[in-house]
Specification:
The complex is a heterodimer of chains A (298) and B (319). With 298 residues, chain A is mostly helical. Chain A has one domain: MetI-like (MetI-like fold, Orthogonal Bundle). Chain A has 12 helices and 2 strands. In chain A, β1 and β2 form a beta hairpin. In chain A, α2 crosses α12, α5 crosses α7 and α11 crosses α12. Chain B has a domain of 211 residues: MetI-like fold, CATH 1.10.3720.10. In chain B, α4 packs antiparallel against α6, α9 packs antiparallel against α12 and α11 runs antiparallel to α12. Helices cover 73% and strands 3% of the residues of chain B. In chain B, strands 1-4 form a two-stranded antiparallel ribbon. In chain B, a hairpin with a 2-residue loop joins β2 and β3. Chain B is mostly helical. The chains are: A mainly alpha (298), B mainly alpha (319). The interface between A and B is large, with 98 and 98 residues.
């Protein structure tokens, strides 16, 4: 395959020096402007969320449950933790197993199909998964709005991410590690779970953390599976709705009360802070990982 | 069962989720699909019928008198808001990817890129909050009247500037949500182009920017197309942010770019409560049909992008 073929004339090397220099400046200027636009949008969003969120924080937000449009967010914080952790725990076994299969044993015809389906599953809109959960679990199975339905919906969202990040992580494990283990007589399970997964564990955990951040930030799949509740969770898996932070953001900001707005800002603060911290941590872990790999190659 | 088989089985379960989702939506929506026919896609009425009348039997289905389901306005709203988002996101994404790949010192690149890619990590509902509280008043009071005044001669840019809720606002918020996808993918592709391409261009007398524009960028064309299609898929299915800034129009097509719209995804959230009022259940099933249409569209779009990127990956490895 020919990559590209260009002539000196196409590159512009034939034009006048002044014109070329002007075009260079103009081009870099436009590219810088595009970057500046995105960077300032990031800053704008974060500043709005953090400033308004911080000014809305009171001890009551953390210690009380929601009462009408006031009170606190204790029920929502608890619910977000329960739903997100539940969803991730449900997604880890099939996600990790699929990752192991794709990376270790996926030489046949099945693997490309699975990889394709999982990649497409990433792109299925979260509201579609929410509606699927509503139709199957809330209505057909009669679970009603519940922790179980919400967690399963979040698990479907998290599953493809965990699968693909685990696969990528396991692929980084050097081949000779596997060969050594097999040569010593270890079986498939021993090699995968005893050698490859522990070696790739930092990267796998990073992927799981990123999936957790996505689960914490999701709203659409939960609205019609988890519902909303002003009370603390009493431990029932089905037939008991549960609150969560992203619902508070959406539902309370559109109410005409300043107390409701304060709760929405506080909820947005918690969710964004959590997602931000995980993203930064993941990036640090990734950098360290690359450092580790570079050092080992030498 | 041996370990290999077990992981294969669980992998099939993971991948099969997609099939199960489509199958169950189809089963649930089937009565609505039969009732609504193809007109569902190009008629412009979403009408639950008379909620207080007795259900009538129509083509063997129980429905409310006057009930009619057509989602043309949703399809138009979804496609137009995605189109606007894409029209802004592609040039801005390419520009910022070029800047990040070649315009930033090496040791800074990873963290500066991270800063832009944070846009992808911010949850949809936080975009919605920001859009609702900050962007809508800003655009509605300051930018849109200004645009009507100075750009009004362009078709669809004139006319009433509205309140800030609408097509352009939704497109703008969607643009910010999808642009990191394009920027990150393209930046990686630009950085990983073989050195001999750069060397060749420099040997022909190209400056740094000319190398980037005439050699490196064309070489990554397919990555740009693939990531733009992936970004399209994400924009088509975005729910919460669009729900909070689009104005949630019902049954009319936008007259200009400031008009309120609805998208398929946001409509499902905003309408389920009222659809549940329908005792025959046909409204809920028709919403399931909306979800099904959305799901099929996103599967086609994402599948196409994955195939494209897959072939690109194979060729890069071969080269």
């Amino acid at each position: 395959m020919s990559l590209t073929s260009v002539t000196a004339a196409q590159i512009g090397a034939g034009g006048s020096a002044l014109r070329r220099r002007l075009f260079d400046y103009l081009g870099w200027g436009l590219c810088g402007l595009a970057f500046f636009l995105l960077g300032s949008a990031t800053v704008w969003i974060l500043v709005v969320v953090f400033l308004r969120g911080l000014s809305a924080l009171t001890p009551a937000v953390l210690t009380q449950v929601t009462v009408g449009y006031g009170g606190g967010l204790l029920n929502a914080i608890e619910g977000t933790v329960v739903l997100a952790v539940g969803g991730i725990l449900l997604a880890i076994p099939p996600g990790l197993a699929a990752g192991i299969y794709l990376s270790e044993f996926g030489q046949g015809r099945l693997a490309p199909v699975i990889r394709f389906l999982v990649d497409v599953l990433v792109g299925v809109p979260s509201i579609v998964i929410g509606y699927f959960g509503y139709v199957t679990m809330v209505v057909d199975l009669g679970w009603q709005f519940s922790v179980a339905a919400g967690s399963v919906a979040l698990a479907i969202i998290a599953l493809p991410y965990i699968c693909r990040t685990s696969e990528m992580a396991l692929r980084q494990v050097p081949r000779n590690m596997r060969e050594g283990a097999y040569a010593l007589g270890a079986g498939d399970g021993r090699v995968a779970l005893g050698i490859c997964v522990p070696m790739a564990l930092p990267a796998i955990l990073t992927g799981i953390l990123l999936a957790l951040a996505i689960a914490v930030g999701e709203t659409a799949p939960l609205i019609y599976t988890a519902g909303w509740s002003n009370y603390l969770w009493t431990g029932h898996l089905i037939k008991e709705p549960i609150g969560y932070l992203t619902y508070a953001i959406w539902a309370f900001i559109t109410e005409p009360f300043s107390g409701a707005h304060a709760l929405a800002y506080a909820a947005a603060f918690f969710v964004t802070l959590f997602v931000l911290l995980i993203s930064i941590f993941a990036r640090l872990a990734l950098d360290e990982n690359m450092f580790w790999r570079r050092r080992n190659r030498r | 069962m041996n370990f290999r088989r077990l992981t294969a089985l669980l992998a099939i379960v993971a991948a099969g989720t997609l099939v199960v989702i489509v199958a169950f939506l189809m089963i649930y929506a089937w009565p609505a699909v039969r009732l609504n026919g193809l007109g569902f896609l190009w008629q412009n009425t979403w009408n639950l019928g008379s909620l207080y009348a007795d259900p009538i039997t129509f083509h063997g289905q129980q429905i409310l008198p006057g009930a009619h389901y057509g989602i043309l306005f949703l399809i138009v709203g979804t496609l137009l808001s995605t189109l606007i988002a894409l029209l802004i996101a592609v040039p801005v994404g390419v520009g910022s990817a070029m800047f990040l790949a070649e315009g930033v010192p090496h040791f800074l690149r990873s963290w500066v890129s991270f800063f832009v890619e944070l846009l992808a990590a911010i949850p949809s509902v936080v975009y919605g909050l920001w859009g609702y509280v900050v962007v809508i008043p800003f655009l509605g009071h300051h930018v849109f009247p200004f645009m009507v005044k100075w750009l009004g001669f362009i078709p669809f840019f004139g006319g009433p500037s509205g309140s800030g809720y609408g097509l352009l606002t939704a497109g703008f918020v969607l643009f910010l949500m999808i642009v990191p996808l394009i920027t990150a993918t393209l930046r990686d592709a630009l950085v990983s182009q073989p050195v001999f391409l750069r060397e060749g261009a420099v040997a022909l007398g190209a400056s740094r920017f000319e190398t980037l524009r005439t050699v490196l960028l064309p070489a990554t064309r397919r990555v740009l197309i693939g990531s733009s299609i992936l970004a399209t898929g994400r924009a088509l299915g975005e729910t919460m942010a669009v729900l909070m800034v689009s104005g949630n129009a019902l049954n009319y097509l936008p007259g200009n770019i400031y008009t309120p719209i609805s998208t398929m995804a946001s409509f499902i959230v905003s309408q389920l409560d009222s659809a549940l009022e329908d005792p025959t259940g046909m409204a809920v099933r028709s919403l399931a049909e909306v979800a099904l249409v959305l799901c099929v569209i996103s599967i086609i779009v994402n599948g196409f992008a994955r195939v494209l990127l897959y072939y690109e990956g194979r060729q890069t490895k071969a080269a």
